[in-house]
Structures are given as structure tokens and as C-alpha cells.
Amino acid sequence: MISRTSGILLVSYILVFLGGFGYLVSPSPEIAGVIHDSEALIWGLFYLAGGLIAAIFTGLRPILLTKITPLWYFEVAGISLIVSANLVHMYALYEIALMTGQVNLLALAAVIIAYTLTLIGRCVEVLSLIRYLSQFALTPDSEG
Amino acid sequence: MENFIPILLSAGGAAFLTALITGIRSLSSSKLESEAALMKRLNDAIRDGSEREDALEIAKKKEEDRAEMFRLERDEALEKAAMYRRRLIDHGINPEG
User: Fold this and answer.
1) Cβ B38–A136 below 8 Å, yes or no?
2) What's this model's pTM, rounded to 2 decimal places?
3) Could you state, in order of their start, the residue ranges of all structural domains in chain A?
């Protein structure tokens, strides 16, 4: 059964995936004004792929594969893409705020930083847990 | 600052690939087992470690007791030696000579 934490994270990753899909279908005018079209496409793909990969492995890990520890690495991989896209988004907002003087965009950038830091915190927690558990993991050569 | 966005995207891509490759390598190099089995082994290891620590503690305590006994015996021997020395001197015999 999926835990509450995993369930909440799963929903958030699905929302990121939908957000990325939305940005690909209808590009963000803020981003388009600051970065090139190809970069904007990659940026949208990062949200799409990052959200999808993180959602798949967060969902799969507790249910289908009886909680295999290394699957957390794939969630971290998805989070890396989301974090990168968030940083690009934040940078774009910062640039627009400098150009137009819209301070409220800086507030939005701060909220994005907060979400990014939360994701980085999740990565740190997961990686330290993997490191701790892997000390006791069996290899195909060892006997269990 | 023009290259800042490609750098951010490249860094994200590199982190993604690193985590992906690490995950694949970890999956292929370790025996696939549930975390419940892993936690059971971890608990056993902690219990074993704790028992080993207890045994070490007991051995250390025994050593300390033995050392204390040796110290008392040594002190008694020194006292006896001092007493014999005084008696010798009292009897006009120089133990150093």
C-alpha cells in the first residue's frame, strides 16, 4: 500500500507533469520573452519528463516492486529535472522583474525557490537513506 | 549571463543522467529484495552489535577488576617489603649494603 507521504508526493509530481505538458502546448509568455524557443521547449520537457519519471517511480516503488531501495535513485533523477526547470523559471522571472520593475514576479520566484528547496531536501533525505540501507544490502555474490 | 540558462539546463540534465545511471548500476549490482528484508537484517545487525558491545563491556569490567586486584596485591607486597626493610634497619642491618 502506498504511504501518505508517497501519495502526496505522487500528486505533486503528477501536477508538475501536467504543468510541463501545459507549457509545451501553450508556451509561457514570460519564459519566451527571456529565453530562446529551443531552450523554452527543453524547459517544458524537463517539467514533463521530470514529473513523469518521479511520479512513475514514486508510485511503483511502494506498490509493484515491494519497495526496492535503488528505485529511489530514479525519483532523484526526475527531481533533478524539475529542480533545473524551476531554477530556469526563477531566473527568467528575475530577469523580467529587472526589466519591467514588476516586484510581484520576485515574490513568485521566491515561492519557486521554496518549492525547489523542498525538492532538494527530499533528495538529500532519500540519498542519505539509500546510503544507510545499502550498507546492509545483499549483492548477488553474497549469501543471504 | 547569456549562457546561464543553458548551464542550468545542462546541470539538470547531467544530474538526471548521473542519478539514472547510479540507479541502474545499483539495481544491477545488488540483489533485489524488499526493504522489509533489509530492515530485518539491519535490526539483526544492530542487535548483534549490541550483544557484542555487551560482551566487550563485560570483558572490560573483568579486566578492570583483575587490574584492581593486581594493584592491591602489589600495594600489599610493597607494604610488606617496607615493613621488612624497617625491621632489618631496626635490627642494625643495612638492606642496601
Assistant:
1) yes
2) 0.71
3) 4-134
